[in-house]
Write a structure and sequence with these properties.
Length: about 130
């Protein structure tokens, strides 16, 4: 998080908003509920990030024509260079983390990280509500 805060600071987007901005960019028209769900965030966290991105003029909301209660999220043209910078920062961080690794080791590390993330998610999902987390 500190790396992304440093890399993205000059863009006005913190590590907390970059996930949301990229997901909206990649899924134009996504709603708040699905956005929160894809990152395993609660709706309140997603809503706070969306408000900040909206304040910066990086996203816009539109009412869903089929259901006016649902807001669809879209990035603005102002977001494109920032998203490209986020992608570059991710590539740079991945290069830093995998420096000195063979291609096979990189693939293995990615698989292991995915498995550990899945295990962590399953544990916290199953242990919510005051139990050990």
């Amino acid at each position: 998080m500190r790396y992304y805060d440093q890399e993205l600071n000059s863009l006005g987007v913190g590590a907390g908003q970059q996930f949301f901005l990229v997901r909206i960019f990649e899924n134009q028209g996504i709603n708040v509920y699905d956005l929160a769900k894809c990152g395993h965030y609660d709706k309140a966290t997603a809503t706070r990030a969306i408000h900040k991105l909206e304040e910066f003029g990086l996203i816009r909301r539109e009412a869903d024509p089929a259901d006016g209660r649902v807001c669809r999220l879209y990035t603005t043209e102002k977001a494109r260079p920032i998203v490209n910078s986020i992608y570059a920062a991710v590539r740079k961080w991945n290069d830093i983390l995998t420096q000195g690794m063979s291609e096979e080791e990189v693939v293995l590390a990615e698989r292991l990280m995915e498995l550990m993330a899945k295990n962590a998610y399953e544990f916290t999902k199953d242990n919510q509500g005051g139990k050990t987390v």
